[in-house]
UniProtKB/TrEMBL annotation:
InterPro entries: Hpr_kin/Pase_C (IPR011104), P-loop_NTPase (IPR027417)
The keyword Transferase is assigned to this record: yes
Domain called HPr kinase/phosphorylase C-terminal: residue spans: 9-77
Single GO MF annotation: kinase activity
The keyword DNA-binding is assigned to this record: no
Keywords: Kinase, Transferase
Pfam families reported in the protein's UniProt record: Hpr_kinase_C
Name this polypeptide is given: HPr kinase/phosphorylase
Secretion signal span: none
Amino acid sequence: MSLLVNVSAVAIGGRGVLIEGPPGSGKSSLALALIDRGAKLIGDDGLTLARSGERLVASAPPNVEGLLEVRNVGLLSYPVAQAAPLCLILRLDPEAPRFVDAAEWVAIEGVTLPLIRLWPDSPALPLRAEAALRCWGLDA
């Protein structure tokens, strides 16, 4: 079991999406926008990862479970997905390529996951995140 910090995660249809990027890049904002579109919060600014067979399952550490930092508003409570298998990593990256032929692949705890880089300053960012999950995400 390991703990990742400076990441957020949501579950969309039972599929975990890990959101990573430097501090201030919009991880929590993307999580908030996806929650507004029906996703469930897994965790914000910290995740516990545990291997389950060939999958990596994400959950929130107990001290931050259900809490999401909404910049300029505060620390707010949201319903949570207790745990979900990670199916995609989204990296908020101002140098993200305009077009990709395939996802990159990243190994965490011995589990290989698809990674898509997204330009963080798009008003359509939650739509792009959902499209990336449809196109490149693993099945739950």
